Amino acid sequence: MSSTILRVLLDSTYLLPSLGIEVEGISNEHIVRLMEAAARRRVKFCCLTASWVEVIGKVCREAQRLKLDLKEILDIPLKSLVESGFYEWIGPTYQAVKLAFKLMMLGHRDNVDNLLYAMSITNRMVFLTMDEELKGFLSRQGYETDNLLTHTQLLSRIERSEGK
Q: Taking the CB of residue 158, how many other CB atoms lie within 10 A of it?
């Protein structure tokens, strides 16, 4: 069994449950198992500061749809996300920004996803995402996608490494 902590960069989708937004395909059981893996020091969850661009938009759209008052419900989850130390917040590196530009020029229009992928590649991290469109684009362009995992794939990998 390896004692290496796997650094996992989270797609913004994986931050939404912390803000009370349900995401199709991510159950409470998945969230608990991911948190337990982090507590056992099997993974360290990293978040790109640029992900806030997507998260803020998604949360505001959902709040409008449900007619929620965000002032009443955001303080605790935001403090937890930003200040708890559970997540490591990172900014993009020069190499990642350069690769993100290249991906944009090749036709992938989601700049945050481009930065996330680029950071995961240039920093040798797992990129936790359910974005099949991104994975398909990268494959068609000849880019490595072995580091793109869904939460179920990551959980299976952790369990295998623990001999479960």
A: 19
Lowest mean pLDDT among 57-71, 82-96, 135-149: 57-71
Contact 155, 34 (CB under 8 A): yes
Domain containing residue 131: CATH number: 3.40.50.1010
Q: Is 64 exposed, middle or buried (0-12, 13-18, 19+ CB in 10 A)?
A: exposed
E strands present in the chain = 6-10, 43-48, 87-90, 126-128, 148-149
Task: Report which of 136, 116, 111 is spatially closest to residue 15, judged by C-alpha positions.
Answer: 116
Report yes or no on 101 lying in a domain. Answer: yes
Residue-number span of the structural domain to which 145 is assigned: 6-161
Q: Is residue 130 part of a domain?
A: yes
The encoded tokens of residue 40 equal: 């056992």
Q: What is the pLDDT of residues 120-155, one digit of tens each?
A: 999 999 999 999 999 999 999 999 999 999 999 999
What is the pTM assigned to this prediction?
A: 0.94
> How many domains does the chain contain in total?
1
Residue carrying structure tokens 């902590």: 5
- Confidence band, pLDDT 50/70/90 cuts, at residue 1: very low
- Show the tokens assigned to 54: 């997507």
